[in-house]
Amino acid sequence: MPRASRLVSAVAVLALGLSACGGSSGGPATAAPGAPGVTKEPCPEAIDKSKGCIYLGAISDLTSGPFHELGAPLTRAQQAFWRRVNLQGGIGGYEVDLTRHVVDSRYDPATHQRLYRQMKDKVLALAQTLGSPTTARILPELRADKMVAAPASWVSAWEFEDVILESGTNYCFESMNAVDYAVDTWKSKSMLVVHYDNDYGADSLGGARIAAERNEIAFKTVATAPGAERQSAAVAAILADKPDLVLLTVGPADVGAILAQTSRAGYQGRFIGNTPAWSKALLEGEDTERIAAVKKQFVYVSPWKAFATDSPGHTAMRRALGAVRPNDNYTSGWVWSYPLKAVIQRAAANGDLTRDGMLKAVRQVTRIDYEGMLPAQAGDFSGDPDSAAFRGTVFNVPDPGELTGVRVARDFFTGPSARGHKLTVPCSQAS
């Protein structure tokens, strides 16, 4: 049964506020006359000019939004990923282009929607749609257009969408694991969630609340907005309540501002940051008090291991990128590309590189080869949302000696809260 049919009502609320890659892609695939994003003409930077071109799109945060430190490197990694695919011979008689249709929404939902509408008739699929609220804004149109998209976000609602190709653990299970880890490791008895008032924040908040109730620990929340200068209310709440644990569902600049201000005021509790909260820049600069607080008090959770990890996928990524400053956002961009590659290969093998063919291929892909960057079970999309969702989280501690500033403290941990939760609705909708 298609994932989209399993939770129509819950996903509608959100919209308002893969057999593996590596198999044969068959002979030259065909596309219906006028199929968007597929041409007989070669790609602009073709390696083999006898091949046609599959155009992919990316709507990212590249310059000034709260996640531009994520968007720019992950986009570069995705471009390197598809160059590698082309160097390996392409897919079904085509090479893949992710250079012509790359745009910057600055994490603004209205801009994201406008840019999508400008792009949608020019690409076969979206290699990237960055952000949870931005992707939710275009989700009804993705469905209507049968536009398969790889999200640069991890909300649990994506588990219920055929057009969305998610990878890794969602924010909901990530936050559950964070709470269980804090209780198990630090014996935490109280927590405060500082979160953006959007889909990213709501999904993390839902998971944290479920785990807090299961662990019977005191639980409070405070909503905040992106911007280091806007964190006074969050800082005041932390200093007033002095919780054992603060879960930060924000961006890196806001993490730095909150830790700097609370540490100067004497707060000694623990912080855990969701995946988008980390940047090695938190360990750099002249603010020695902030750096000391990050080293001592902060733990970062992630859906996969860091840039320097020894796996076939990590190794291929580093070779494809060449001489770059190590950054874990490169890793995210690379990992997010595997499911879309698997779907394009399946559609090509079916001889149907159209929107309908892509959506049909999504439903046929039951396993994805992440080349060791995720455990094998992470690529099994054959079940319902609850059985298919991957729940393991990597816990990292800051370490200036590591290439990207973090060292693995616990490897793909799944706590009892995530293990025991029945995912029947997105966590932002769970009561």
Automatic annotation (TrEMBL):
Cross-referenced Pfam families: Peripla_BP_6
UniProt xrefs under Gene3D superfamilies: 3.40.50.2300
Keyword terms, alphabetized: Signal
Domain Leucine-binding protein: 54-373
Family annotation (InterPro entries): Leu-bd, Peripla_BP_I
Signal peptide: 1-31
Family statement: Belongs to the leucine-binding protein family.
This protein's name: ABC-type branched-chain amino acid transport system, substrate-binding protein
UniProt source species: Thermomonospora echinospora
